[in-house]
Structure prediction request, 374 residues.
Amino acid sequence: MPIDTPIDLACENICKYFSDFTAVDNVSFTIPKGSFFSILGPSGCGKTTLLRMLAGFEQPSSGDILIKQQSMLDVPPNKRPVNMVFQHLALFPTMNIEQNIGYGLRRQGVAKAEITQRVNAVLERVGLSGSGQKDVNQLSGGQRQRIALARCLVLNPTLLLLDEPLGALDLKLREQMKIELKQLQKEFGTTFVYITHDQSEALVMSDQIAVMNKGQFEQVGTPHELYYQPKTAFVASFVGDSNRWSGQLKNIEDDTLQIETQDGLLLQGISSNDTTPANSDVLDIFVRPEAIHVSLSAANNSADNQLCCEVETILFDGAKSQIIAKDKKTGGSITAAMPQTGDFMNLQKGDTLYFSFSREQTLCFTREHSAGGQ
Prediction:
């Protein structure tokens, strides 16, 4: 994103209180024009409350919301340059597709000829040319999704707010719509603010992601940054899959932490906190299953962490298959992604495997300093 890209949305120290409950706690961020920005977090973390404040359905207890540098604090929802797509798409069943898409334009008093032209143009851009006269009940789930988007995008909003819009779709259609949504956002150039608890949706589609927990943003960054450089234990555990252990620091040597997990694994890792842990600190330790090299033989490997393991369980899921094994020395459990080669096709419980991974792939967070520590 160029440095001089205009800012479509800026939130400054936003707080929202419900009696003695803090739903959103001093959140600040900016979104450049034309971005796909996702707010990712578990149920109850405050993300939907934040989205409702952007839309104008809720007012902040304190702080400011600026769209194109204009404060929205006293602006009602229908006067904001914002549209919203909900999980339940709320298409009008008594209207055909053309009437559904043109509804907002009719409310604005746009001339009939212009409505027809704009509706036809947006139908073409969402890949449904010639479908204007069809009834809503003739549409597939994915087509309904595109019509709901078209109904908002035809109004040329500055922001399109999406509240878990794929949640009601089946898995295969959801995977397809992730790709389509990203393509449509780039096609229209509209700024998307997307709310989800599904980290896969956020990783695939977003330019930037804010990971939200207990009303606060734990980290804002690109999908790559959040996945490979999480700043808190919560982000490390919520974004992607990980082995997670609790352990005690045994020694520090050349910035390398030597840790013993509660089930006896001896690992070398790096600190992901700003502070250097002390021997008395409890550490949260994360290693992603796909970061582990799996071998059938004890090859001469220079990796920092090397384990001789026995296969306990194989979780077969095609290309996403995983191996759960135990370290033969300590009995500690560890999960690795199954290599997609013929050498592992006949792998069985009880087989011996050799796991290895580097210290850089062993991320350690000091428990008392990790905002999301559990």
Summary: Helices lie at 47-55, 97-107, 112-125, 141-153, 171-188, 199-205, 223-228, 233-238. Residues 7-234 form a domain with the Rossmann fold fold (CATH 3.40.50.300).
